[in-house]
TrEMBL record:
Organism of derivation: Sorghum bicolor (Sorghum)
Parts forming coiled coils: none
Protein name, UniProt field: Calmodulin binding protein-like N-terminal domain-containing protein
Residue ranges of domain Calmodulin binding protein-like N-terminal in the record: 50-194
InterPro entries linked: Calmodulin_bind_N, CBP60
Length: 202
């Protein structure tokens, strides 16, 4: 027994429940450890059963008070998908209310993450500069609350009230999240980064 302890003493037993865990529809899937750094913790990739997405691309630049549209001139569309990338067209979530917000442009920089927590998302919501009126709780104006129909909705009447100069990187992203808490964890959607400029009078 003593010889076995000496021989296997450096091995670490990983419990089975650590290998794959499910918590509120968030799955943890282990990836192979990095051979170049044996002390680095086991990498993990997480994903949720449901996620919101921006269906079309946003513009590279917007102007304050102008209607927000996609880069092809159509309305910005959001939709709810499952883990197999199938749009949810039935059930309570297919008609849920969602909210569109402005995020700091460095959130999930270079799309480096497949997963983030609600806390990380909320901490990246861009707010007006300190000292501005309390009523300016969002840099977005207009109809920011959308009701999904068959799992999708369009942003038909929204605009920016502030320029992206108030963002950490001088750029915004748009984010979409559930407006009301649900039993199911639905991962928020994020757009590409863009600038928001002041419309100068002609």
């Amino acid at each position: 027994m003593h010889l076995m302890q000496e021989h296997f003493g450096s091995l670490t037993v990983i419990p089975k429940e650590v290998v794959q865990t499910r918590w509120k529809n968030a799955f943890i899937e282990p990836l192979e450890p990095d051979d170049s750094d044996e002390e680095r913790p086991l990498k993990r990739k997480l994903h949720n059963k449901y996620r919101l997405l921006f269906v079309n691309k946003v513009c590279k630049a917007y102007y304050t008070w102008d209607q927000i549209k996609a880069d092809d001139g159509s309305l910005v569309m959001v939709a709810l998908y499952d883990e197999n990338n199938i749009k949810i067209t039935s059930g309570p979530l297919s008609s849920a209310s969602v909210e569109v917000v402005a995020l700091h442009g460095d959130f999930n920089f270079n799309a480096s993450q497949d997963y983030w927590t609600s806390e990380e998302f909320n901490d990246s919501i861009a707010c007006p500069a300190p000292g501005e009126e309390a009523s300016s709780v969002s840099v977005l104006g207009g109809d920011r609350i959308l009701v999904l129909a068959d799992g999708e909705a369009c942003l038909s009447d929204a605009f920016f009230k502030r320029t992206s100069i108030c963002a950490r990187t001088g750029m915004f992203k748009m984010g979409v999240m559930l407006a009301n808490a649900q039993d199911e964890r639905v991962q928020e959607g994020i757009s590409e980064p863009f600038r928001d400029l002041i419309r100068m009078p002609q």
